[in-house]
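anyone seen this seq b4? input:
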Amino acid sequence: MVHCLIVGGAGMLGAGLAKRLIQDGKVGGKAVTRLTLFDIVAPNSLPEGGKIVVGVETGDISSSETAERLVEARPDVIFHLAAIVSGEAERDFEKGYRINLDGTRHLFEAVRKAHERDGYYPRIVFTSSLAVFGSPLPDVIGDDYIITPRSSYGTQKAIGELLLADYSRRGYFDGIGIRLPTICIRPGKPNAAASGFFSNILREPLAGLPATLPVDPSVRHWFASPRAAIGFIAHAASVDGALLGERRNMTMPGVSATVADEIEALRAIAGDDAVKLIRHEIDPAIVAIISTWPQAFESRRAEQLGFSADASFQAIIEAYLEDYAPQAEKKA
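predicted toks r here
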């Protein structure tokens, strides 16, 4: 009997993870009996839980009182997905540190205090980011490459990784940190992430709408579909902590592709008319941020632990069309 808490449960990944947990019905071989979704606002809709009791909590994760309230229920698995995105964290320094750093530390501290009171010892899955790496970078980054963030968001995530490793070393909880590739194609409307254009130049043309490309088509990056990312998060809850040892954080597998590769995959699926909807308009601010980001990884450690990526960029687009496009058509 497992109680799962999703911190960031109203977001795209949180909502998808909730559906995945209900579909699987188990975590680490044990039945999920309770699922709590927490966010600053309640989800637009709740998944059908069947035998799983699904509840909602709202509040500000940057409040220590909120974190302690969430931990009072002693969830067995905590998925910490809550964060403000890269572009917003860079523009609003104070908000970025309050949500992305203080929120993480308050949650970890609430678990530590509970552990010291009654031996509470949950699994915590922390979603980190490729932004923990910064230039200068090799063409392909291995598992042992040092993290040197060049943005406030990347710094906040890197500190979260270090906290996760230290609290796990001290025995307060069993933590695992997974660095997600850039998620593409994100459903819904554009967000404030610097990486948002990677999705925009596909999602909008697929819906017959124009989109702006703010960087050169030669830009290369590391991608995963929402389906793959949700799979990473769900699988992370089941990885044996003994196999992680002191190295609690790792980069997830992905697809290395250029923007030009994206566009050709779009052409193969939706044709030339969709590609013609993309307008090239350089944005120096976006170019500056993206220039510090990694292009490709060797994610052998994650693969050895059972994490698997999308087969190709065309498969990423196909997954989006299967998982999200029908919903978008219904709303239209």
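Residues 2-331 form a domain with the Rossmann fold fold (CATH 3.40.50.720). DSSP finds 14 helices and 13 strands in the chain. kinda curious what u guys think
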